[in-house]
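Co-fold these.
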Amino acid sequence: MELLKQKILDCGRALDEHVLLVDSFLNNQVDVKLMQEVGREFARRFADAGITRIVTIESSGIAPAAMAALEMDLPLVILKKSKSSILKDGILQTEVFSFTKNAPYMLTLKPQFVNPGDKVLLIDDFLANGEAALGASSLLERAGAQVAGIGIVIAKTFQPGLKKLQEAGYRVEILAPVKRMAENLIEFE
Ligand code: 5GP
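Predicted complex below.
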């Protein structure tokens, strides 16, 4: 998606070879017009997938996922991040290792917001090692839903996540695939 790639080049900053900062339009401040285009692009790419629900992970997945949900006229469900496991009936949790915080957290789904048989489009802001997407997929599958697609705004394709998701059989669509980074250098596939 050229508009997004240009925005990353104009406003993003590679901190080092591993971490990309996009706080001015995705993580801290949100360019909602750009997110609207992102939502449209996800809707276009997954138009044939029979999606019945959009699911994302708080907090930076919410803006692009909400725009996709609006465009596709579908409900949006948010997976929350908890510091510890919550002992509550009717809650599904799995441990995920956070790429940015370098610490584990409990990804949490309230399964009453997903129907068995739902065809879910999972949307997240970044893909790195695939921990968040694989954890989210396992929760959705435990709730009886099918992960029919995974939409990623920015994937660092040199990190292992993409391969892991593809090997697990998921259909992954990436709007901005970054193949290499260094301090102040960003290269797309
Ligand atoms: P993964 O679970 O695939 O290792 O990492 C994905 C999650 O970590 C995303 O939900 C995102 O919040 C965060 N993340 C991974 N890499 C980056 C990055 O380079 N920049 C930012 N801002 N967040 C990242």
